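Tutorial handout. Part one gives the primary structure; part two gives the three-dimensional structure as tokens.
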Amino acid sequence: MKAKKTPSPTSQPSFSMDDFVKALESQEYGFKKGQVVQGKVYNYETDGAYVDIGGKSLAYIPGNEVSANQSADWEEVMPLNQEMDFLIIREQDGDGQVTVSRRQLEIKKLWDEAAQLQESGKSFQVRVSGVNKGGVTVDYRGLRGFIPRSHLREREKLESLIGQVLTVTIIEGDRDRNKLVVSQREASRAESFSQLELGQLVEGKVASIKPFGVFVDLEGITGLLHIKQVSQSMVPSLTNVFQIGNIIKAMVINLEQGQGRVSLSTRVLENYPGEMLEKMSEVMDSADARAERARKKLLQE
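Part two.
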């Protein structure tokens, strides 16, 4: 019987240590820009921190990429040895080190939240951070926004608003252009509108007088007292009845939230036709009692 031939050592494929290292690098360290990876902060430096993301070298996070809130305490938002997500913003250099960011992940999340707020029309709070010619700049948890002067409730002495927290709604949000425009006026109007209901007696100040009616400021929202709703009698001239600045009471008889319209009436408070023209002060003084009677009638219609 012939003995089996033993394979020669030279027939085995060679696999050096260099080959092993290269294979390991190609499989495990292919970090790409835009990739989200998990890691733990290894240590802090003066201008940034080193992060262990499982690469052959520690990743680096510059100080300005730690948080969307530039004044945040690094140890609070990025504790040592706590696993969290990081975004790769620069691929490996010659030493195998990548650059990562937490700030850009937070900004993305904030824009996602802003998109939801804009779609729902919900209000939220921002802090005024600066003033420029057209209005004020604001900060929404690290996202920079702008309120045009025309969308502020207080349009003079804008410097006094710095540091104040304002309630706003979004009127323009453009993630690609990093543009966030918000309105305090619209938020205030929406809040005021939400507190109104049909048949409610409201008090406001006469803001302007037009041939067709009187506009009444209801603290953030404007109601219209149409000339036909002033009295059961014909009104020859509104300027003979009202003056700008007059405080009056009127009943809400129609609400159109989509258009932001509030229709008012003092006609329904009269005990007889023409009473508003003859004895307006008496009508106003007893408006609460009159409104209860008028409300029942209005809601029955």
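Part three, for discussion. Helices lie at 17-28, 74-77, 103-120, 184-194, 275-278, 280-285, 287-300. Confidence is low (pLDDT under 50) at residues 1-11.
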